[in-house]
């Protein structure tokens, strides 16, 4: 992480712009024993070998209460998370198509009449339910990065956030451990991933009935990572769809043209957004037996996207001569 980014993050925390928890403490001991991580001397026990770590994969969206992540960008690495006491129904996407490691997930819009008031949200039965509220998890500790990270929640929102120096170590086991608050303590696991390196001028062209061929530098032999492709080309639709594909980290993959056609048919508006991320994903059920917490270690990069037959626009990017910008959907017509 550059010094400039570190100073910026520190400044934002100081003035309260980042309403999240603290930075790494570098503490050597931990007085909140969770998961038998302290030996008889009070020292934290060694982490298991990466090959011995088992991943439970992503949470089902219907019971995903929240996420913690170690997220690496081209500029810095952050550790962050927030967990609520329920699921917002609109975030439970519907799988409308699946093929070749890819899923096309569409957002639905529950309808309640009369509309729900403040503090409530509409479910798919047309009933107003309590809007899920962020919860306290106690102290959250992450080991296996370049330094030990210990975070306390900050208000508003019981957010957890830290910016460790240098971030993750590829191939090293990472443990997330919550000491307990609203629920009992829990732990989840990951393995540090190699940085996703892509050409700065990489462009994905989304054309009808055409596969998208992906290439990236493959991970080292024995790596635990997978690669996720994500694409959204309907930024202003009332019920947009997003394409997710999960592939082995072998350096190449193909997104089927049939999945591209399904995405195009679901709607095209605004500026398309695509990304490729190298990651490990684990999850853990909370002590209520209902909620699930996801823990993702990821190195993600955004990729430029163009959709054949469509020209996005806005006030700063006018349309070619002969076309006008429909600013509501940011498309030339």
Written overview of the protein:
The structure is a single chain. By secondary structure, the protein is mostly beta strands. It has one domain (3-21, 54-108, 134-332). It is 7% helix and 35% strand. It has helices at residues 3-15, 257-266, and strands spanning 64-72, 77-83, 94-99, 102-106, 120-122, 128-130, 140-143, 149-151, 160-162, 173-178, 186-191, 203-206, 212-215, 226-232, 241-248, 252-255, 273-285, 292-307, 325-326, 331-332. Strands 1, 2, 3, 4, 9, 12, 14, 15, 17 and 18 form a ten-stranded mixed β-sheet that branches. A hairpin with a 2-residue loop joins strand 3 and strand 4.
State the share of residues found in helices, binned by percent.
Answer: under 10%
Beta-strand percent range:
25-35%
Summarize the biggest pleated sheet.
Answer: 10 strands, mixed
Low-confidence spans: pLDDT under 50, at least 5 residues?
Answer: 1-36
C-alpha Rg (nearest Å): 21 Å
